[in-house]
């Protein structure tokens, strides 16, 4: 007997995919690629392109984390970025969704993000109390210089929006290039600003996707899908 499995799929132009991965324009495709996925066909070497997205995700998560945390905390924070402001999380999603995703795919998260953690460790920006253990306590440098470094790793669009809120200053590099840097008064201020930008982006994107999904699936199928989501959400809250 043949077995069937329901799969969610979408169609997107490669230009739109790259734009979201590099700039977090809608925080939809980039959010999905911050979690473990299985790429069937890759004509653009999207793995290399996505490394920019993964580095930015680590930086965003570190800005939101305290001075000490675990590897599970880090991946949970990364995973939660794409749910900030998601309208479905208010009533139609399992409140334990992020925890289940990370715990169920911890090894895959490790393989995705380990290179960036090793890089930060080599630069003495992160310190691991128990190397090679997912229960290790990770300590991070929360100085203003480290905060600037993390913000600099965020996508240009996010930095530009942060600069509009916090202010910008021009920095002349040795190469003669003039760069626009976000003015950061404190780590907390930078984290709040970034969080608001991501939350608003995800909120708009989730509303757009909800409407598109309803139109594509049709009223009956969309209602069934939503009812199933709500049922799971209510079970998780009991």
Automatic annotation (TrEMBL):
It is found in: Mitochondrion inner membrane. Its EC number is 2.7.7.41. It is a peripheral membrane protein. GO terms for cellular component: mitochondrial inner membrane. It holds the Pfam family Tam41_Mmp37. Keywords: Lipid biosynthesis, Lipid metabolism, Magnesium, Membrane, Mitochondrion, Mitochondrion inner membrane, Nucleotidyltransferase, Phospholipid biosynthesis, Phospholipid metabolism, Transferase. One of its GO terms (molecular function) is phosphatidate cytidylyltransferase activity. It comes from the Eukaryota. Its cofactor is Mg(2+). GO terms for biological process: cardiolipin biosynthetic process; CDP-diacylglycerol biosynthetic process. Pathway: Phospholipid metabolism; CDP-diacylglycerol biosynthesis; CDP-diacylglycerol from sn-glycerol 3-phosphate: step 3/3; Lipid metabolism. Its main location: mitochondrion. Belongs to the TAM41 family. This is Phosphatidate cytidylyltransferase, mitochondrial. It comes from Populus deltoides (Eastern poplar).
